[in-house]
Amino acid sequence: MYEIWLVINILWEIALGIWPLLAVAGLVWVALVAWALRRARGRWRAALPVALAAAAVVAVAAFATVPAFTQSSLKELAYWVDWANLAGIAGGFGAAALAFAWPLAALLRATAGRTGPSVAA
Q1: Sign of CA dihedral 60, 62, 63, 69
Q2: From CA 5, how far away is CA 14, in angstroms rounded?
Q3: pLDDT tens digit string along 29-38?
Q4: How far is residue 26's CA from residue 120's CA, in Å, rounded to a whole number?
Q5: What's 22's DSSP letter?
Q6: Whether the Cβ atoms of residue 110 and residue 45 lie closer than 8 Å to each other
């Protein structure tokens, strides 16, 4: 239980250090979702598989590369908490990618639907 509490405290301290970046990312996300809600009505469900695929790619890439960015390696993960932390971090990157990719994919589908060839009667 101590390890989980320690991880939560570490994440909180990291967030305090980069809160301006997190605030800007949050504002960009809110603006993106608002734009997609106005322009891409009805395209959200069709865009979900693309966004989930992008999130999965980002999560797998994060799982493989985060240890290298922390000057570690997968070989050094010996305790289950280490693996759980790495999976959680990778999942967080995947969730962030999903949060941005879903409205973007909906917008791209809406744009592609409007610029496609029209059939004259």
Answers
A1: positive
A2: 14
A3: 999 999 999 9
A4: 43
A5: H
A6: no
